[in-house]
Design brief:
Distance between the termini: 168 Å
Strand order of the largest sheet: 1-2-7-5-6
Order of helices and strands: HHHEEEEHEHEEH
Number of helices: 6
Strand content: 5-15%
Number of strands: 7
CATH class of one domain: Alpha Beta
Structural class: alpha+beta
Helix content: 55-70%
């Protein structure tokens, strides 16, 4: 109910003075009501207008703020959309890269599996080959051990032979020294006794004693000069124990055969040997040989003897085996 209505309703509460106006307008009451209504309506409409105007401004303000916020949100949406688009693009790239890596890994695994299978196959072959090589190596080691044993025995044998060679060298040196001593003894005593028809020479470890033709024997008889020479040789034999003495000769092949030459050598040795053994305490080994001594001169005769001396070979016979 409006204000005017309230006034009408509550008019009974006003004093009679107040109702005077009301009583003076009995026939004009509808007009008055209309005017009042119009007046009141105009007042209400202006207030409502002002309220609406104020609401409009507030609405426009809120709309402007909403538009600004909407634009900001739109810009943010565009930005987020671009970022989302970029993220989708990056995601697609990552998916593609993932697929590439996945395919590459699958291929790599396939190659790895193939390689592993090949390695296993080779390992199996190597295991077989290793066993064969090990067996072969063991056989080689066994053979090497046997060879080493043989080499050890051979080495020992060679050492012994080397030691024997050293012994041979010493024995040969001793032999040569004895030959030199005999040569020096004969040469010195021949010179001392003015014997110029006897000659010594050393060859191959032997001492050869030759004579001028016709000096030692005249015909088949030992001469006085020959006896002097034999005494000096006997003295040499007495000073040199264990000596081999060989009575050999040289002869004229046109007049004598080898057997006849040997016979004459044996006959002449019967005269020489007693003189060689005179005053000899040891037992020199004297033998007759058919060896021909080319260094012995013949002259006008058909046969001449020569003597060959050699120290004992006892120090060397042990190395002959």
């Amino acid at each position: 109910m409006g204000t005017f209505g309230q006034l009408i309703v509550n008019s009974s509460r006003y004093p009679p003075k107040t109702n005077l106006f009301m009583n003076t307008l009995p026939g004009r009451w509808p007009l008055v009501m209309m005017l009042a209504t119009m007046t009141l309506s105009g007042c209400v409409s202006k207030k409502k207008y002002l309220a609406l105007e104020d609401a409009k401004k507030k609405t426009e303000l809120r709309l402007s703020e909403s538009n600004k916020e909407n634009k900001s949100l739109t810009d943010e949406l565009v930005k987020k959309t671009k970022e989302a688009s970029k993220l989708y693009s990056d995601l697609d790239a990552l998916k593609e890269e993932f697929n590439d890596i996945k395919n590459e890994m699958l291929e790599s695994n396939a190659r790895k599996n193939t390689l592993i299978e090949e390695l296993n196959r080779k390992l199996a072959l190597l295991s077989t080959d290793n066993k064969a090589a090990k067996d072969s190596l063991q056989q080689v080691l066994i053979r090497l051990d046997k060879k080493e044993q043989r080499y050890g025995a051979r080495q020992k044998e060679l050492r012994e032979k080397l030691a024997g060679l050293d012994g041979i060298e010493k024995a040969l040196a001793l032999h040569a020294s004895q030959v030199a001593e005999m040569d020096n003894f004969l040469t010195h005593n021949f010179d001392k006794n003015n014997i110029a028809n006897a000659f010594t020479s050393v060859e191959g470890g032997f001492l050869y004693l030759t004579f001028s033709p016709g000096v030692l024997f005249e015909g088949n008889q030992l001469t006085a000069e020959g006896k002097r020479m034999m005494k000096i040789v006997a003295a040499m034999l007495a000073n040199t124990p264990d000596v081999f003495c060989t009575i050999a000769s040289n002869w004229n092949e046109t007049s004598l055969k080898e057997l006849d030459a040997l016979g004459q050598t044996q006959e002449k040795s019967k005269q020489v040997t007693p003189l060689l053994l005179e005053n000899v305490n040891t037992n020199p080994r004297i033998q007759v040989s058919s060896e021909r001594i080319g260094a012995q001169q013949l002259g006008s005769g058909d046969h001449e003897i020569a003597l060959v001396f050699s120290p004992s070979l006892a120090n060397l016979t042990g190395f002959a085996e």
